[in-house]
Amino acid sequence: xxxxxxxxxxxxxxxxxxxxxxxxxxxxxxxxxxxxKLYLDILEERKxxxxxxxxxxxxxxxxxxxxxxxxxxxxLTVVAAATGAGKSVIISELCxxxxxxxxxxxxxxxxxxxxxxxxxxLSAMGIDHNVVKAGMHDWEPTRSVHLxxxxxxxxxxRKELDLKVDVLIKDEYHIGVNGxxxxxxxxxxxxxxxxxxxxxxxxxxGFLLAPKENIIPxxxxxxxxxxxYLCQPKYLIPKWAQNxxxxxxxxxxxxxxxxxxxxxIDTPEFTAQAIEAMEQIDFGTKQTAVYCCGIEHAExxxxxxxxxxxxxDIVHSKRPQKENESAIESFKRGETKTLISxxxxxxxx
Length: 349
Known about the structure:
Elements: H1 2-14, E1 18-19, E2 24-26, E3 32-34, H2 35-50, H3 58-70, E4 76-80, H4 87-100, E5 105-109, H5 114-124, E6 129-132, E7 145-149, H6 155-161, E8 167-171, H7 180-189, E9 193-198, E10 215-217, H8 221-226, H9 239-242, E11 251-252, E12 255-256, H10 258-265, H11 268-279, E13 288-291, H12 295-307, E14 313-315, H13 321-332, E15 338-341
Helix pairs in contact: 1-2, 3-4, 4-5
């Protein structure tokens, strides 16, 4: 895609357009084109090559149809679809359908990486939308769709925008719905209906996020694998790892205690065995994502890999955002083969 974009820019330049010192663009001949227009033209070319309207998969179409059928019946509908089911595509299709019904929509997320991803999909659908996120603020009151980063929608911003919507769509619905901030946002936006999308229809205590009849379960991992949308996962669980004594690791909320687990696995012995298991699948020659139990564990693992001569990088919440973004982009381009993280490379990655 970047090659196509570069080509579009190159073609514009080869047509004779060049910026002069006054910030305008002179074409060959007598026509003078404003500098801004050249880049608007390039932006249009960029949209053509980057944003193609997605074709809905059958189960995605079923989800959208079922949600639309429920909008006048229930004030809460939760879509439970597996990771990789394409929830961003589903959200964009819902926005388009809801706007056609004359409704205003707020799409809410608290995961920074999802904002540009969702914005890209909305643009692919031709949906003009507002964005409320630090560094991405774009606001036009006449628009019907609003993409909102929860953390950026603070009290001052709420008063400034005075936003009310008919429908609230919350991505990763299992995150924060019982928290104070989310309740405050709900009170401000005052939606008639809420649509939640998640791969985990349980809260942190293990309870359903909505009454069973209000949950739409579609696109399970097994179904996506069977239909060819996801590859068949393969598991390698070394016997030494199975034979470890994990009896001291208790449940904390709806998950295992990270602190107790880290005491067992963040040791030189465990790390050496883990790297040896990774070497059995030639991880150094393949794109490999390694997930650790806490930042300290991740940093210790990186040091162990580097001592053995392996090149790798790391991302976590205490590193500068630019360094994290650079590491992720390098990994996506294949320049970095092994990337270590804790939870940064989960939702939206």
